[in-house]
Amino acid sequence: GGSMTIQVFQAGNPDALGSYTDNGQTNPQLTGGRRGIIMTGTGAVTAAMDNFVDDTPPVLALTISPPAVPFYEGVRNVPVMPVAGAYSGSVASVEARLVNVDATGAVIGTVAGFEWAQKVASPSGGAYTFNFSGVPVGGPYRVQVRDSANPSAVVTGTSDRYVGAVVLGWGQSQHDYLQQKYGGSVTVTAGAKVFGLQKAQKSQPGAPAFARVTTSSGHGSGLQALANQWAADTGNTPMMYVNVAIAGQGIKIGRAHV
Asked: How many Å separate Cα 35 from the centre of its chain?
């Protein structure tokens, strides 16, 4: 006869356990977040199971840094897509792949030829870098990384990346206005993958902003109309337009950000 009490202590809740004694021997094996079971009963029945292996995975954080300009020229050249990030904890090696995403950022498949592969064999110093070379024209793409020792913990980048054509528009100073909201607004075809660098005018100094051209993006109506024509003529190949204007800032911006 008698009764039996079973106490289960979960990882991450050491205060519910502390330490215990068994036959006068203090046993600390179940402290510090380990999992354990202690069974006590009446009628001189006492049993304890200890020395449990902690099955809680180590705390690990892998991050992917957003690129300054997530557009890579891939029509005339073999595109090189640099990737950088950081980590905490111990990482055996960094593996990565490139995936296609839809308009909401949801992963819809792996880019052919860019499946999971080791990119950094022995990361050190809390940071890592590597390149994807020869990414096909298209997008949006996103980068995924993982630790080879913990392959189920996949981290997906938050930045859409594109490979396509870089087009330079040449003209006098007022050519800068093609990049700005000037002359009204044109309805841009949904899904058009044309991008422009904003704040390109000499009268609007400051860091240029890379943005997709949409009906409400604030780009010039000329660039909005160009986006529609480009998408129709090229099968929606991604394109980044850089205005190169005499006495303007287009050349400087193009050199620094393309």
From this structure: 34
**Cα–chain center distance at 9:** 36
Contact of 232 with 226, CB cutoff 8 Å: no
- H runs (alpha helix) in the chain: 221-234, 250-257
Return phi, psi of residue 230, to 5°.
Answer: -60, -45
76: confidence class by pLDDT, cuts 50, 70, 90: confident
d(CA 249, CA 243): 8
Residue 26 burial by CB count (10 A; 0-12/13-18/19+): exposed, middle or buried? exposed
For 53, the token pair is 């292996």
pLDDT of residue 183: 53
Distance separating alpha carbons of residues 253 and 258, to the nearest angstrom: 8
CA distance 177 to 224: 12
**pLDDT tier at 67 (50, 70, 90 boundaries)?**
confident
Q: Is 217 exposed, middle or buried (0-12, 13-18, 19+ CB in 10 A)?
A: buried
**255 torsion bin: left (phi>0), alpha (psi -120 to 50), beta (else):** alpha
Query: What are the φ/ψ torsions at residue 56 (nearest 5 degrees)?
Result: -80, 120
| Side chain identity, residue 74 | G
pLDDT of residue 9: 46
Which residue has tokens 């044109």? 186
Cis ω before 140 (30° cut-off from 0):
yes
- Is pLDDT larger for residue 202 or for residue 184? 184
pLDDT tens digit sequence for 141-169: 999 999 999 999 999 999 999 999 988 87
